[in-house]
Amino acid sequence: MDSISDAEKKLQGGVAVITGAGAGIGASLARRAGTLGMTVIVTDISTSRASSVAQSIREAGGKAEAMTVDVSQPTALDDLARTVFDKYGSARLLINNAGIETLGYTWEIPTARWEATLNINIHGVVHGCRAFIPKMLESGEECWIANLASIGGFSVMPTQTAYIMTKHAVQSFTECLFLELQLKKSKISVSSVTPGMLKTSIFDEEAGKGEAEEGSGLRKTMHDMMAGYGMDVDEGCRKIMRGIAEKRFWIDTQEEMTESAIQHRVKFLLERRDPEVHASARGLLEME
User: Fold this and answer.
1) Does the 11-287 domain belong in CATH 3.10.50.40?
2) Cα distance between residue 191 and residue 172, in whole Å
3) pLDDT tens string 273-283
């Protein structure tokens, strides 16, 4: 079993609520939370996926409960927070992870897919925090919140516009939230998680249903690149969970990728030049 850091030991015995935990990064973080001795509330829009992950945690000797939650609906997050606090009395860790990738030209993405992307990726994070923070503040206990941004929050990419803009929004929201909770002198730490390339199912063909047809080429290219060169998702999530426990605002999985994206962004802003794709991503457009 992987070692547990001293910081992670502070999470033991607490309740972890993770959205979009039926697959990918969310599922891996849920399993890690179970390993740390937390009671894990595995939420997902798919009941079967959430139940499967919760079952795997229990089979490994941990504690977990599956809940079906559509994070695109603010009232669903209100209900989730109410249920968790009524049943368990507290939530030590909240990870707003749920998100979808949408590819295609801005004007060709169907309205329903645009709305789903904005509601899940942005509003799911915002209303997750809004629903849980009042009770966390009221408890006076040490709590942790982590929002899943992305390395895409510091870059731009044509035909990945819908996803990229949501991650820019999550990054700025999380920075402001950090400052707000500082003003409140609260015991709630806030982290922005910026995964690089992890091996998940986010670029699988099934995940692209409802997006523009033009996005299918880039989706396959990204899928193949992730499969060939991505970091193992469990390895990445061990780094993420340790960073959350250590109360770091910036949490990377592949620091050099984040550094490169930020340096490119900073240069673009300082020089006020025309937008351009980072050199590392130009090949993707040529391959599409």
Assistant:
1) no
2) 12
3) 999 987 766 55
Domain borders along the chain are 11-287
98 vs 24, 164, 165, 231, CA distance in Å?
10, 15, 16, 20
Model pLDDT for residues 11-39, shown as the tens digit of each residue: 999 999 999 999 999 999 999 999 999 99
Per-residue CA distances from 216 to 30, 157, 210, 221 (Å): 30, 15, 11, 9
Pairing relation of β-strands 188-194 and 93-96? unpaired
Query: What's the pLDDT tens digit per position in 179-216?
Result: 999 999 999 999 999 997 776 655 455 554 665 565 55
Torsion of CA 173, 244, 67, 211, to 10 degrees: 50
Q: Is 163 assigned a catalytic role?
A: yes
Percent of the chain with pLDDT over 70: 85
